[in-house]
Amino acid sequence: MAETLIALDRISKHYVRGKEKIEVLHELSLNIEQGDFLALMGPSGSGKTTLLNLIGGLDQPSAGTITVSGQRIDTLSGGRLAQWRARNVGFVFQFYNLLPVLTAAQNVELPLLLTHLSKSERARRVQIALTVVGLEDRAKHKPSELSGGQAQRVAIARALVADPTLLVCDEPTGDLDRKTADEVLGLLQTLNREHGKTLIMVTHDPRAAEYAGHQLHMDKGRLIEAGAQA
């Protein structure tokens, strides 16, 4: 039986805009198992990205508890939460967020600069991460010298380089053509199935969601249905 990696218990999130209180998530409870590949789907404004940000420790809930690997993260201070993210979560975004002045290898190395690893160990991990995504021969190329698909693979290598427990992906193929998107999604699926990574992916694209093991649909801050792929 798979172990629960992430447990959300009655999570709510609201923002205050002037005198208006805007509810984004409403007492949402969810368990995510170790090794799952979960696609979060729903219309714009349904709360998908907010939920992803809470799970990844980029934001904190207004109410409720979030436990990851047995540790409550909703009560961590800003500094401790940043340390937790650096050790446990890799992020993949729609627009890559690569620094244009750095090479692919230097971009991948960035998360490791926050660690106490030696330069040689950082270089070893960067090489492994680029090899996993099939870009070891592009290590010295800058983002302007890469295709969109290659740039996203570099971003995935950067997310992987610290060997995190969890990968969170926010519309990772939203800026890619269909063929390139399928290649990137195939890579994410391989990371899940062959490398045992737990992935949570926000997507508007039903075809992208088919690569995941499970789909959760959201609307107006609530889970409205769940499905599993064969």
From TrEMBL:
Domain ABC transporter: 6-230
Top-level lineage group: Bacteria
Cellular compartments per GO CC: plasma membrane; transmembrane transporter complex
Keywords: ATP-binding, Nucleotide-binding, Transport
InterPro entries associated with the record: AAA+_ATPase, ABC_transporter-like_ATP-bd, ABC_transporter-like_CS, ABC_transpr_LolD-like, MacB-like_ATP-bd, P-loop_NTPase
A molecular function (GO) term: ATP hydrolysis activity
Gene3D superfamilies: P-loop containing nucleotide triphosphate hydrolases
Family, similarity comment: Belongs to the ABC transporter superfamily. Macrolide exporter (TC 3.A.1.122) family.
Protein name in UniProt: Putative ABC transport system ATP-binding protein
Native species: Panacagrimonas perspica
